[in-house]
Amino acid sequence: MKKPSYYYHNGFRMPMGFPIEGFTSALNYQAQPSDIFIVTYPKCGTTWTQYIVWLIQHNGEPLSASKKIEDDIPHLEEVGKEKIEILPQPRVIKTHFPYNLTPYHPQAKYIYIARNPFDCAVSFYHHTRGFIKHYNFAEGSFEDFFECFIKGEVDFGDYFDHLVPWYKHKDEHNVLFLTYENMKIEPKNAIIDIINFLGKAYKDRIKNEEILNKIIINSSLENMKKDQQRWSSKRPENMPPFIRKGQVGDWENYFSPEQQQRLIEKFMIRTAGTGLETLWNGIIIRS
Ligand code: PPS
Question: Which end of the chain has fewer CB atoms surrounding its CB within 10 Å, N or C?
Fold first, then answer.
């Protein structure tokens, strides 16, 4: 069985190429009252939400040709606190840190996106085989990756160790909990929820329906794919693009009945009594 390569730091597996110093310094970032954190377990809708927030801040106008989304909304544990501290406020910050490691300020805002673990595993598999330098897993199969995923032996740890603690905080005043699946069904509603959550200053920016429509269009899968193609030429040709399928239910093309059963069992055990048990009814359990 082939396993992706990681380095170990602070009890985590981390992608090769994420500097250890970045991770360590990220832990010491002092959250500011105006900070907006976009928090997810990997492959759950981070980039999509980064685009949405960026577009809300820029009247729905797309990124200029010279700009990457991470220039303005960097990944905290990849770049370290020093790169975040030089951003103008309000800062928008991407993180995959679990709840207990995420820098906290009671006035900062936390947008959490959850995605069902089945589609997350498939997306994470493609990510892991695609970033060859980070994981050395180009030849790895889904079966290989699944064994790592179900044991939580992947970067950023076990899926459920991320989801369950964040879910407990979902009703706090400074947390907005969304699901990838609902964002797919009603992107407009998700965008409005984000605008409302960000507060009056942001609501005031969306002066008319035209701006809202631009945000919807420029954060669509098709337009984000086009935008990301500007800089994804580094990826080997036979590897999936970073913005890949963007579907709900792609997992059915990968999971064997046995794998499905094993992940359902883990899901039932880890979500028992949390309120998460029924969140993805109809999506992860075939009727
Ligand atoms: S990462 O590496 O953790 O930051 O990845 P992340 O951005 O969280 O997740 C990548 C998956 O999100 C899909 N995606 C989208 N889906 C729908 N609409 C839009 N606009 C969109 N943008 C990104 C992306 O395709 C990855 O999912 P998969 O299933 O692999 O296609």
Answer: C
Q: Is residue 53 part of a domain?
A: yes
Q: Which of these, 175, 216, 188, lies nearest to 51 by C-alpha position?
A: 216
Tell me the per-residue pLDDT of 82-104, one tens digit each, with 9 for 90 and over: 999 999 999 999 999 999 999 99
pTM greater than 0.85: yes
Radius of gyration, alpha carbons of the chain: 18
Give yes or no for a contact between 88 and 36, defined as CB atoms under 8 angstroms apart.
no
Domain count, the chain: 1
* Residue 129 near residue 261, CB atoms below 8 Å: no
b/e sequence 48-74, b meaning 16+ C-beta within 10 Å:
bbbbbbbbbbbebebbeeeeebeebbb
For residue 4, the SS3 value is coil
In a domain, 7, yes or no: no
Is there an atom of ligand 1 within 6 Å of 127 CB? yes
Q: Of all atoms in ligand 1, which is nearest to the CA of residue 113? A: 8
Residue 261: which CATH number? 3.40.50.300
Does ligand 1 have an atom closer than 6 angstroms to the CB of 179? no
* Residue 114 tokens, joined: 């959850």
Which residues are part of the catalytic machinery? Answer: 96
Backbone φ and ψ for 85, nearest 5 degrees, come out as -65, -20
3-state secondary structure of 11: coil
286 assigned to some structural domain: no
Banded model confidence at residue 236, pLDDT cuts 50, 70, 90? low
At residue 235 the predicted structure's pLDDT band, cuts being 50, 70 and 90, is low
The answer to whether position 177 is within a domain reads yes
Residues of the chain with pLDDT > 70: what percent?
A: 97
Residues in the chain: 287
* Residue range(s) defining the domain that contains residue 122: 20-221+228-278
SS3 226: helix
